[in-house]
Write a structure and sequence with these properties.
The complex is a heterodimer. By secondary structure, chain A is an all-beta fold. Chain A has strands at residues 3-6, 10-12, 18-25, 34-39, 45-52, 57-60, 69-73, 78-83, 92-99, 109-112, 116-120. Chain B has strands at residues 4-7, 10-13, 19-25, 34-39, 46-50, 54-55, 63-68, 71-76, 86-91, 97-98, 102-106. The chains are: A mainly beta, B mainly beta.
Amino acid sequence: EVQLVQSGAEVKKPGESLKISCKGSGYSFTSYWIGWVRQMPGKGLEWMGIIYPGDSDTRYSPSFQGQVTISADKSISTAYLQWSSLKASDTAMYYCARHGTADYDSSEFDYWGQGTLVTVSS
Amino acid sequence: EIVLTQSPGTLSLSPGERATLSCRASQSVSSSYLAWYQQKPGQAPRLLIYGASSRATGIPDRFSGSGSGTDFTLTISRLEPEDFAVYYCQQYGSSPQFGQGTKVEIK
């Protein structure tokens, strides 16, 4: 069974750093792109970027380029999303999701993590 | 960048009725790289349709997708109580984007 399990909720202060995780299981982790999607409170879905764990090739939405870093550690089947300096406007639910087609960078998301709620407040 | 516009914003219908949701792209979506997702409160999105018209695994056949180029439609033939939710389209070709969502609510 394919599963993506995300790390727990975080409460941080503006200016702090953060790294959240997404652990994949039940499939070949290195063969499927993993993406991150933001959902701000009461709002829609925003595509942030994707990573291919096999070689760490990464693509970012222009809206998120330079604002976050996506990485992966294939030895432990885990993808990450990190911030070096959080802002209040980063408060949101963050989902990881897997591409539906192996090795292909243009694909729908067929499996989703449960989400990680990040709250940034002074 | 392709912008996706979903309409209507909210659809008020009764169980058993037919729902027709629209997703219009500002430019042609390459190779019908268009997906639909359902999201219920407090849950992660769920893939319904990919490739504009292919149902994802386990999705009931009352859900169908159609369209190409810039105009796409998600149809729910007969609404069940569990279908009341928010629906998003997504293009996953060049610079992937989601639409803003359509809420299907109980009338």
